[in-house]
Design the sequence.
């Protein structure tokens, strides 16, 4: 799905405040601490709790393998002033040529309410529609995760309603609200300004 430019771990995206870059093993402690926060885990269907550094290391290995294959793209969020401190993650998975990708994300609790995920998701979506042939992106949020749903609304996602999905991290099926963003409907800069890509 993703072109060769994204397959190298020096690839990154730039926003006003952040770099979006490949996760590294040196991120394991920050990821385990922030994803291991019970309030963060409670807002997702995919982060188990408790979540330790071994879980983070396994996640990083899987993410890097997915990035290398081009079948998906998982990026860590980091402030420009602290580029080695991962504060959250965003990823696109399960795609096929001219098909659908599923987008997921989380952000450390201390960074909530600052518009950071909207900022990150905007350039990430620009990248997806700018360099792939995907027709749409879908994203799930737990019904009571209003902040995540607001991010999706700001970016132009429309609701497909509630459904149940398997959530191995929770050992059960859970209800989510699924939303969809089709090519050309995104409330992003795509078409007016391409995302800034960095590969050196």
Sequence:
């Amino acid at each position: 799905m993703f072109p060769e430019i994204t397959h190298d771990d020096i690839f990154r995206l730039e926003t006003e405040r952040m770099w979006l870059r490949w996760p590294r093993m040196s991120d394991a402690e920050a990821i385990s601490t922030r994803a291991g926060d019970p309030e963060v885990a409670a807002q997702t269907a995919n982060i188990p709790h408790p979540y330790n550094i071994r879980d983070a290391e396994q996640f990083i290995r899987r993410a890097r393998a997915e990035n290398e294959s081009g079948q998906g793209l998982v990026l860590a969020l980091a402030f420009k002033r602290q580029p080695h401190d991962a504060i959250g993650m965003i990823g696109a998975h399960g795609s096929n040529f001219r098909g659908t990708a599923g987008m997921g994300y989380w952000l450390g609790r201390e960074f909530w309410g600052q518009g950071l995920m909207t900022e990150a998701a905007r350039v990430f979506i620009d990248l997806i529609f700018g360099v792939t042939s995907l027709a749409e992106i879908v994203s799930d949020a737990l019904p009571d995760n209003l902040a995540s749903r607001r991010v999706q609304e700001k970016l132009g996602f429309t609701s497909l309603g509630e459904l149940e999905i398997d959530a191995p991290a929770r050992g059960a099926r859970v209800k989510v609200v699924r939303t969809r963003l089709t090519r050309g409907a995104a409330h992003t800069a795509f078409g007016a300004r391409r995302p800034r890509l960095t590969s050196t």
Summary: The chain is about 25% helix and 30% strand. The radius of gyration is 16 Å.
